[in-house]
Amino acid sequence: xxxxxxxxxxxxxxxxxxxxxxxxxxxxxxxxxxxxxxxxxxxxxxxxxxxxxxxxxxxxxxxxxxxxxxxxxxxxxxxxxxxxxxxxxxxxxxxxxxxxxxxxxxxxxxxxxxxxxxxxxxxxxxxxxxxxxxxxxxxxxxxxxxxxxxxxxxxxxxxxxxxxxxxxxxxxxxxxxxxxxxxxxxxxxxxxxxxxxxxxxxxxxxxxxxxxxxxxxxxxxxxxxxxxxxxxxxxxxxxxxxxxxxxxxxxxxxxxxxxxxxxxxxxxxxxxxxx
Amino acid sequence: xxxxxxxxxxxxxxxxxxxxxxxxxxxxxxxxxxxxxxxxxxxxxxxxxxxxxxxxxxxxxxxxxxxxxxxxxxxxxxxxxxxxxxxxxxxxxxxxxxxxxxxxxxxxxxxxxxxxxxxxxxxxxxxxxxxxxxxxxxxxxxxxxxxxxxxxxxxxxxxxxxxxxxxxxxxxxxxxxxxxxxxxxxxxxxxxxxxxxxxxxxxxxxxxxxxxxxxxxxxxxxxxxxxxxxxxxxxxxxxxxxxxxxxxxxxxxxxxxxxxxxxxxxxxxxxxxxxxxxxxxxxxxxxxxxxxxxxxxx
Lengths: 275, 298
Known about the structure:
The complex is a heterodimer of chains A (275) and B (298).
Chain A: E1 7-9, E2 19-24, H1 31-43, E3 45-51, E4 64-65, E5 68-69, E6 74-79, E7 84-89, H2 96-109, E8 115-124, E9 134-138, H3 141-146, E10 158-159, H4 168-177, E11 182-191, H5 200-214, H6 221-240, H7 242-252, H8 259-273
Parallel strand pairs in A: 2-7, 2-8, 8-11
Antiparallel strand pairs in A: 1-3, 3-6, 4-5, 6-7, 9-11
Helix pairs in contact in A: 1-5, 2-4, 5-6, 6-7
Chain B: E1 3-5, E2 15-19, H1 26-37, E3 41-46, E4 56-60, E5 63-68, E6 72-79, E7 82-89, H2 96-112, E8 117-126, E9 136-140, H3 144-148, E10 155-157, H4 172-183, E11 187-196, H5 197-200, H6 207-221, H7 228-247, H8 250-257, H9 264-269, H10 276-293
Parallel strand pairs in B: 2-7, 2-8, 8-11, 9-10
Antiparallel strand pairs in B: 1-3, 3-6, 4-5, 6-7, 9-11
Helix pairs in contact in B: 1-6, 2-4, 6-7
């Protein structure tokens, strides 16, 4: 890395790994950061590099979300497992390509990373009792073949709709392809009414895939426990509020709710799970 | 330079006509119309990735196909002995540093082809009524250009507009490009077509202003302007505006109709009957009207 790089390296040793896991903060169900934090907690993690925020973020003040002051972060970690490194961060406010180039420069030239896996949640109109599916987007056809056998959705078709824009993960995959770095965007379904809170079941699905794919051997009992607790809480909610229970039942049967019903369900679930 | 050349024709002192989206796409529509009329040929594109976030992604069978970015393209056409270079941008970059960078890149390409004069165009939000013929405010980047300019009947300097005193701001690349051109010793002229203030608040085109820009531009480029397409659009737009106008409350309509009394001749010598306070009242009334019932407008 040259001296002008916006990424500051904090630690020089133990940075070699074939894979990088990328998690953007504030995706559906906080999926990406939940998964990466879980890996950090189980495997141990050390921050080895961080972004200079000024070129990429508006820092004239701070935002407040869920009553809490927010501040952007963009950090790289090495774990006690030499198969992967992690990046956890906010999407930049400006110079997105410069930001992505800086990630790629670091992991390509200093860490020898050959494959990138972005980990994110995607909002779905599904019920929370249904199994979470993981959809995959690759930037190289050969990668798709290597992902067979993990029960992934590998036949996705998508075109950005008017008024929307591509995800940063798609932009990263596109930029990585220019450098022959294979990239897999992993999107796990998050029921829409859990998109603003945690969805441990979606996190568990993603962690189980990463365990299988990379032989991480991460103990999932704690996330299993969170799945069980949330499941019990949602069961209690449907018993206490028959109307909400009815909406959940309709979703389980594949019936689409009206916008008002969706809003009501989201609001009640968020309120119920907030503690 | 971050530019992908498809073709590098030998041009002789071409004039650059640049346009980006803005209020009502006034300038863009004029330049795009001219470019289409002369059948200008695509020759180069600024690599968008450093300036823009992608607009769309296409994914086929779980494989990333491609990203689509806003385009910033150059076109050229030789007409008689005159070379014209067009630049049309789909978007302006979001942050100041990138805006300055792209302005420099546009002028790098222009100078690469030997260009010494640049035209930009956009909207001048004005206290005029929609039944008034809009004028073009001509803003050169040096004093000697005032004499060199071919003055169309509907073209004026900012100093001729009541209350302006020759002062104002041109936001975004329409202005910045001329500033950077001046820094490089290049001639630059911005043509701003008047748009009624109450129309400028809505995301609709105003082809009457685009048409007059086209006429002023063509006159200065020594060309015949074919404004038939813009004329037709203007007629359709006039009908739409009139229909909208008939549906707003009478008291707001009356206030807007006061703008009819602001004639261009009067404006130069005497203050018109519309004051700043009137202007605020008109806009406040319109805002209240829309906030109170946007479903009333089709």
